[in-house]
Amino acid sequence: MAAAVAMPLAATSLASQATAETVMRVIPHADLKNLDPIWTTAYISRNHGYMIYDTLFAMDESFKPQPQMVDTWTTSDDGLVWTFVLRDGLKFHDGAPVTGEDVVASLTRWGARDGMGQQLFGVIDTLEAPDAKTVVMTLKEPYGLVLESIGKISSNVPFIMPKRIAETDPFEQISEYIGSGPFVFQADEWVPGSTVVYTKFADYVPRDEPVSAAAGGKIAKVDKVIWQYFPDATTAMNALMAGEVDYYEAPAPDLAPILASNPDITVEVNDPLGSIGFARFNHTLPPFDDADVRRAAIMAMKQEDYLAAGIGDSAYWKTCYSVYPCGTPLENDAGSDLMATGDTEAAKAALAKTGYDGTPVVIMQPTDISVLSAFSLVTAEKLRDAGFTVKLEAMDWSTLTSRRALRDPVGEGGWNMFHTWWIGADVIDPMSIAFSGSPDKGWFGWAEDAELETARKAFSQASSLEEKKAAATKVQERLWAIGASGELGQFFTPVAYRNNVKGLIKSPVQFFWNMSVE
């Protein structure tokens, strides 16, 4: 037997460092409770989806769709037949290869829930997988948003799942969470309200191109990503200041100056389009089953008051009365006088004409999301001043995202209003599910307006920018005419991270591939 040789302390230290597990600790913007990013539009579920799933195409930083899981694709001369060939090396976390049948099932389920997906599937004649690596989409008529639809960057994202999972009813949540993305979800370590753990997928084969927003080479540069949820913003800030976590996705804007004063922390805005605040009505229940009542409520909403209360520092917000983000091509002012009213006396007069009978307005208030909690309080005050009877019901955001899917009467779990935001990239055009006028397939609140749906379809069929702008303007007119939602202004939430974090990706959505901790 050979004699044991003592290893020098320095060598022992180097060997330990060489094998040490690298971990990035992240404070997410909300608790992850719903794990199905097709069933819900909640951004925390979307972010979870990006960790473990992949997409056929992905948006780069210029919002142009680039191939992701697709290697090559062709389009017939008449624009009706689209053929996609998957790239080599695609494998699910359970070891099974990704096939065309997985893609067909995944897109079909997504198309039942997503606004752009619904429009796309409205013109799809057949979607088939003739062999393991090929998907053929045959359209009834030419459609100008095929790649933009299957490569959309935010909710709902057309993530690819195994066929057996994707065949779950789109209005029921999946119960198995296996993707083919750069990280693996560790279900046995998931603690709702506290911790989510992802580990590097060793068999993931990234693309060769440089990363650009959601597109390019997704390289997992850490062995593990841990989401550590803090319901209290100050506690979260202190954890970042103390070095207990590395990255804070959405610190409250009023805490940003404190964080920025720490030389070990960087605070910056990562999304040039920002987010749009929404006050969403339930169109199916009294009193907001009456468009005139909804419009009266909107008249009471003054954007400056919401933004000052929820965001604070005016450097991080601006008023915007277009339903599309200000500064984007489809911004317009059609019908926007309604949202710009901002006068509770005018709202009171308008409400009196409706014959409102005092039916209580139940507002779901997510107390763990400071911006939305503040928005809820502002609405409650303004609606009371305008003559509404208002009841606030406090809950956490994850509970709200489950409850908002209920269509039951208020006394049986239903609701009248909730507040949220959409990132600008999600509401940049009429294809957003937020603008749907379909009560069966539309977003929570279930607006119903055939004229709105006709205008949205016209946008999807438009062949020139002028035609698109005309259709988008018509969509906006109808949204204000029916009082679909109150729009509460445009704001820009900063991110904060310790200076040991490298490789931050500029994007409306925060991705954790290509990021490292040193």
From TrEMBL:
Which GO annotations describe the biological process of this protein? peptide transport
Q: Where is the signal peptide?
A: 1-20
Q: Which InterPro entries match?
A: SBP_5 (IPR039424), SBP_5_dom (IPR000914)
As one GO molecular function, the record gives: peptide transmembrane transporter activity
- Return the Pfam families for the record: SBP_bac_5
List UniProt keywords, sorted A-Z.
Signal
- Membrane-crossing residue ranges in chain numbering: none
**Solute-binding protein family domain sequence ranges:** 64-432
**Domain of life, per lineage:** Bacteria
Q: Where in the cell is it found?
A: Periplasm
Query: In its keyword annotation, does this UniProt entry include Phosphoprotein?
Result: no
What is the similarity comment for this entry? Belongs to the bacterial solute-binding protein 5 family.
Which PANTHER family does the record cross-reference, listed alphabetically? D,D-DIPEPTIDE-BINDING PERIPLASMIC PROTEIN DDPA-RELATED, PERIPLASMIC BINDING COMPONENT OF ABC TRANSPORTER
Q: What is this protein called?
A: ABC transporter substrate-binding protein
